[in-house]
Amino acid sequence: MRTSQDFLRVGTTVIFIGFIILLLGTVLAIIQHPANSQIGGLIMIGPIPIVFGSSPEITTNMLGLGLIISILYLFLWKTKR
């Protein structure tokens, strides 16, 4: 019979492998794309979006996506109560 320690080890290992795959994918994408490519990102901390980008257009797109996700999050949180 499996114990909770076994499940903890498996879960931690899966998360660690996921981070490694994500890191390798990012590195390979940066290596394979030309120098003039644009990149942007969105980090959600609760309903608060943090955006970054290599150009104003990408940053604006990420901000729009962050606002849509924030509104959806707040809507779903409000309907749950």
Automatic annotation (TrEMBL):
UniProt xrefs under Pfam families: DUF131
NCBIfam families the record matches: TIGR00304 family membrane protein (TIGR00304)
InterPro entries xrefs: DUF131 (IPR002849), NarG-like_sf (IPR036197)
Keyword check for Amino-acid biosynthesis: no
Originating species: Methanosarcina barkeri 3
Bilayer-crossing regions: 7-31, 58-77
Name this protein carries in UniProt: DUF131 domain-containing protein
Signal peptide: none
Higher taxonomy: Archaea, Methanobacteriati, Methanobacteriota, Stenosarchaea group, Methanomicrobia
Alphabetically ordered keywords of this record: Membrane, Transmembrane, Transmembrane helix
